[in-house]
Amino acid sequence: MTSVEEQQNRELVLRVYQASFGGDANAFPDAMHDDFEESVPPILPWGGVHRGATAFIKDVLPLWSAAVDVTSIRLVSLSADGEHVAALLTGRSVGGDELWIAEHWTVRDGKLWRMMNFYHDTTPLVGDRSRH
């Protein structure tokens, strides 16, 4: 993969984040490959493997936005290596707890093909606060 393709992949993910942060609810689904697949830690209420834009919209977004203060999410860094793009984000849970999220994207044919989510601490998101 050329550095031009690598830069295009980085810019695709950046544009999607920027549009999403700007309130465009279709930013992620519109950029998804037909064979999109997302993997979320199974401990989370929206955890598991989700396939396709419809699953992302119906199964992930409602539960995610009920647990995360969506307006607090900020992109800290974004790196690309070939078809892989890694993002580090910060934000707050709806309860005000600090969150650190890493998202690993794989871009295929100019579209978001795979996404794997990593959370530094899932405690504020699972409802069991006894571990604090």
From TrEMBL:
List the InterPro entries.
NTF2-like_dom_sf, SnoaL-like
Q: Which domain of life is it from?
A: Eukaryota
- Tell me the ranges covered by the SnoaL-like domain, including all copies: 13-115
In terms of Pfam families, this protein maps to: SnoaL_2
**SUPFAM superfamilies assigned to the protein according to its UniProt record, in alphabetical order:** NTF2-like
Query: What name does the UniProt record give this protein?
Result: SnoaL-like domain-containing protein
What's the source species for this entry?
A: Oidiodendron maius (strain Zn)
